[in-house]
Amino acid sequence: MKVNILFAAKDFVRASLLIEMLSRQGYSVVTSNKGREAMSMLGEKTFDVLMVGQNLADEEGLVFLKGLRQKNKSLPVIAVLESPDSVLSHMPSTLNQDLVLPHGSAPKGQSQSQGITYKLAFFQLGADECLSYSQDLHESVARIRAVIRRTISTQSEEVLKMNEIELNMSSYTVKISGREIRVTAKEFDLLYVFLSSPNRVLSRPYLIERVWGYNYFGSPRTVDVHVRRLRSKMGKACKYVHTVPCVGYKMIPNSK
User: Which H or E element spans position 119?
Assistant: First the structure.
């Protein structure tokens, strides 16, 4: 499956090398510099991971993360910070009740933000990992991959079954009526999406996003080519994959 990442930050000058390295390793990275826009994108499309900066153009990263966690508690979040170990310069009023100082409340005469670092604050608000721009790029990518690996392993069943079709996520194999069939990586990913969404109409743009990623700009008709090849390998089981005219495809388990 193509892993789709949304990166929300004020600017991406310092992040350009990280984004380039992720893209080279096969990840699809979409960027947004505004919290409102990023939240809208999360509501409209399916992303596997959110990366968020210390600040966005229209709000602070901490405020954005709090708003996200009120709506979505399961999306993996990776904070990418300019100064993770620096103490918060001020405490946003909306976060007064959400952040806890390491040693209790702030001393008399000091603001609540004193004593809590950006890294600790992001973790307390629900980040799964915190990275620094000064960190080695290879280590940053390794940490991102670790978060994705943990997420996929907990969200995906090792074996997906539907009637005589069996898809094994760990061995990357497909069996139909107990017989293994050879499929390409894209065909495997297509079948995974179909099996994960029975009785749901899947449009060509949606399949492009899930299998090829948001950065794919080719023709949506490439989906038809791959589905046709997949069907040809499925034998009688191809009857479950239905074409929805002018829209896309639908996997119907009880087809006869």
Answer: helix 118-124
Q: How do residues 31-45 score in pLDDT, each as one tens digit?
A: 999 999 999 999 888
Class (C level, CATH) for 159-251: mainly alpha
**What integer best gives the mean pLDDT of the chain?**
87
How far is residue 214 CA from its own chain's centroid? 11
The pLDDT tens digits for 63-73 are 999 999 999 98
CATH for 4-155 is: 3.40.50.2300
Beta strands in 4-93 (DSSP E): 4-8, 28-32, 49-53, 77-81
Q: Is the pLDDT of residue 156 over 60?
A: no
- Separation of alpha carbons 164 and 198, rounded Å: 14
Predicted confidence (pLDDT) per residue in 203-243, tens digit: 998 899 888 887 777 787 899 999 999 999 999 999 999 99
SS3 30: strand
Model pLDDT, residue 99: 79
Helices (H), 156-243: 185-196, 204-207, 222-234
**In 3D, which of 119, 82, 87, 113 has the Cα closest to residue 100?**
113
Contact criterion met (CB below 8 Å) for 233 and 183: yes
Nearest to 48 by CA among 155, 201, 137, 168: 155
Give the DSSP H/E element, type plus range, for residue 166: strand 165-168
Query: Whole-angstrom Cα distance, residue 197 to residue 178?
Result: 22
The ranges of the chain annotated as CATH 3.40.50.2300 are 4-155
Residues of the chain with CATH 1.10.10.10: 159-251
